[in-house]
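Our consortium's second objective concerns turning raw sequence data into structural hypotheses that experimental partners can test. To show how far this objective has progressed, the report includes one record in full. It was chosen at random from the queue rather than selected for favorable results. The single chain below, 806 residues long, was entered without modification.
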Amino acid sequence: VGEGWGRHDSVSLRIETGDASIVGGDIRDIAFVATGADPFELVHQGMRAVQRQMRTFRLRVDKPLPPSIDCFGWCTWDAFYSQVDGPGIVKGLSTLRDGGVPATFLVIDDGWQDTSDKAPPELIKQRTPTEDFTAPESSPQQGPTNTLQLPQPSLQLPQLQATRALKHPEKIITRISKSLSQCFGAVVHCMSTHLLGALGGYYEGFVASAAHTSWHIWLWRLLSSTVLKSAILADYEQKYDFCKRLQSLHAGDRFLDTLEDRSFPKLISKLKSEHGVSLVYCWHALHGYWSGVHKGVCGEGEDDLEISIVTPTPNAGALQIEPRMSWDALVLKGVGLSSRVKMDTFYQELHSYLKKSKVDGVKVDVQGAASMMGTGRGGSAVATRDMIHAMERSVQHNFGAQNCINCMCHPIECLYAYNETNVARASEDFFPGDPASHSLHVANVAFNSLFIGEIAFPDWDMFQSSHSLATLHAVARAVGGCGVYVSDHPGKHNLDLLRRLVLPDGSVLRALNHGRPTRDSLFKDVSRDGRSACKIWNRNPCGGGIVAAMNVQGYHWDRVHRRQLPNGGKGYTEPRVTASVAPADFEPTDFQTTLPLPHLQPSTQDTDMQAVHCADATATAATATASATTATASTTTAIATTSSIARWAVLMTHWGADGRQLSTATYLSLLRHSREVELAAKECAVFTFAQVRRAGKAGAEVEWAVLGLERMFNGGGALLEASAGEERIELQVRGQGSLLVYMSRKPLQVLLDQVPLADDDIVYNQSQALLRLQIPALGEGGHQEAGKGEETTGRKTRTRKITIFV
């Protein structure tokens, strides 16, 4: 480790194999270091180099697009937790559909499986042969030997049993020892329970927040693995599901009892045929369930899965960050794992059952635990990779590799194993009841996506639309380029908020890439420094972009106390911050750089769309040195690029923490001209950028830029294609509602799907140079679906063709 460990001015590496029997001093390829001017390209090329060297995973861009991320989804977790049932699923989907935001993607989370804390008797019998002296031998009068026969009353029975016991004294000794062990265990458990109750105050006062080097931690680690182990496990079993294991690879009786005819396939078919669901995923842990699989569980045809109980071993680096892992439920109880040679069989049995039930994919959770199971399995990296690759082979065979969400998967052993699957959780869970978690959640997913997004599409987790901070979460998903799904209680939805994310067909306007912090946010402590906004950028089709600026100051993760804490003490007030946003923030590429038309004059109204005036090339060159200056909404100074100017139309919306829209503005901007917005705690602002282009004949040209659907958080994502000629502008768009277009003059005519748009649906504001086109729903006003569609989720995404004559 060296003397520099833990210093702020040093970089230290910890190298651990995850298996005490695997040691060595010659360790190669332990780190990759590169430098460059573009941080985003640097990370991409760095990951490409690592991937070529390791050959254990593939990059996101080399794997197919996951179908789930373009669908609006609903997950059952926060609505039901592990008590999910059939009627609840139907009700949740129905209330979303009736509200105009149909969920076309469903995740049936934890709660559908067949689990128990203790192995059921039939499994115990399978792995422990019945002692033959407990019943008399069969005789011709007793019938077939495979039929259970109760012993008939007989005076000779005690004598018979005594005689048989004398013939097998070792078995009676075993039985007596077992009985004594059970009695002793009951006494120990009783003492352990009383001791745990007596030490509860000690744990909360001294252990819970102690440093990892504290003797309190050492003592509790010793107690939890010895005299307190029984009581702690009993407490876990009473309060949580973490100690449960699978007792079969099928749906559990509790869940099936809530379904019509106890039929899982019938439920899935109903959801798809009656509720518009196109994709259904089911949750499971990487090792089956939280504590794995009970010994004795077999696959179809009684295929032995060779389950053994493995004790997870957290490595020293993990314990330094989170010493409580030493008394985690999985560590104390152990995890039931199939042998390495039966791993493929295990996943195939689990997934083939789901496939037969008409399920389309899986959410595979608890993956990080695999990195603690390297003992006897080749070390943590090998063990994790073996499990993930076996899981991926089964997913590929049964569902197609892209129908999988990887979750709780941040260990590097997991990330460097994703060879086929292409979605990975980028954060801790969404915790509805923890007010300290929400701003940190947004900051964490953005910064984690910088790295994770090179390997897979980052999953930013679900949220609840009725939550007090739902707008902050919704805006984060809009800019994140991730899947959008909620975990609302049935009937408890903020439909107005959801309609800013979801189209009526159940699809979403997803940005092209994975959302990441802007360059000027990368090295700022956006949750703790008291002055910096968290700015996240992404790109849209046709050269557009989106930047969300958020105030996520207020809380931080305290590494000493291992919890989320306020940044200040009593009386602390979360600060206001100022964000400065420019088109350059979304890293535009391949943009056109054209001078503004000479006849366009600047506006003097701050909130109006403004034309930037430049008289000639001399004036352009004279302003080249101003390329890094900041402009307010009324600034009209041009900024030169290499030889000409690129400009963007901008739509800015400012949102309060409570979801109210506080302000909106449209304006023209140059590449590095920025606009400032002041944000109170948990407020956010969304900036949509569209490149200004030119159409029409020489001498009668018109400038235009499509900002997108005005009501949507990422309205710019509605524009799929755009082209322009001397007479017309042609657009391919998605969705319905008000389409906002910057145009330097009023169009002559507008067609929608080759049908003239009604005059009332065309509104042009001369002073703002803004055109609003009201796009009706398909089938309204004589407008039918255009013949074109984009294949995304196994169904057609409906697009509309708009022709603007200039």
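The partners drew two points from this record. The first strand starts at residue 72 and ends at 75. Residues 127-167, 597-608, 610-644, 782-796 have pLDDT under 50 and may be disordered. Both points have been shared with the crystallography group to help prioritize constructs.
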